[in-house]
């Protein structure tokens, strides 16, 4: 039961966001079709795809609002929909990254640090592998207006994942199956792209900014050598055959004990002064 409750606590927020996003897009279909005669002639899934390329900021240009009222509504729809989609895809990227580190720990039979699982980015080489596999799938299975099995496949995938969407190459969604394939493919590609952006941001910060972004990355000088807090924790853990997480927990407990002792000493001093007076 505890495992199930823990699982539900982690999944419930994401499930709620997905439900809100889905309901929001379904409601948007009825609104768009009621105020835009061109969109009213399109199928339900074509309008859903129009909404998706709008809030994903791809905007191929082959679908767009035709009336003033639908243009105003598209602005409101984007203001609400873009954050919902970004949060949803970003969370999927985080879950995928956590799964990678946990799976790596299982496969390599090593205990994975909880902080590493929660904070670390997907390794660059793994993102490269995901990009290669994703582009390969697009090369073979994703229909678009360009020439099949050519550079147009990679070009279409890249401008879509990067949300550039020039409009010279657009997806073909004339059937429900194509709609499902293209939408799933674009969402997956954007998730990989978000992981790449996170990785590159961290890399640039480490290379150029030279400012620690976590307490465990702070460097201290010991014996004439610079060493990070994380490395010190790992060395202590190895010395006593414990995990880095256990060492950090002990240090945290010691900090609390010292704070309590300091508070108690302060209160005792105040009491003594009161008695003297």
UniProtKB/TrEMBL annotation:
Q: Which InterPro entries match?
A: 2pore_dom_K_chnl (IPR003280), K_chnl_dom (IPR013099)
Q: Where in the cell is it found?
A: Membrane
Q: Which domain of life is it from?
A: Eukaryota
Give UniProt keywords alphabetically: Ion channel, Ion transport, Membrane, Transmembrane, Transmembrane helix, Transport
Question: Does the keyword section mention Lipid metabolism?
Answer: no
Q: What is its main location?
A: membrane
CC annotations in GO: plasma membrane
Q: Name one GO biological process term.
A: stabilization of membrane potential
Task: Please give the SUPFAM superfamilies that the UniProt record associates with this protein.
Answer: Voltage-gated potassium channels
Where does the Potassium channel domain lie? Answer: 20-98, 149-204
Q: How does it sit in the membrane?
A: Multi-pass membrane protein
Q: GO: which molecular function terms? A: outward rectifier potassium channel activity; potassium ion leak channel activity
Residue ranges crossing the lipid bilayer per the database entry: 12-32, 44-60, 72-92, 122-142, 185-204
Tell me its family.
Answer: Belongs to the two pore domain potassium channel (TC 1.A.1.8) family.
What PANTHER family does the annotation carry?
POTASSIUM CHANNEL DOMAIN-CONTAINING PROTEIN, POTASSIUM CHANNEL, SUBFAMILY K
Its recorded name reads Potassium channel domain-containing protein
Instruction: Specify the species.
Output: Caenorhabditis latens
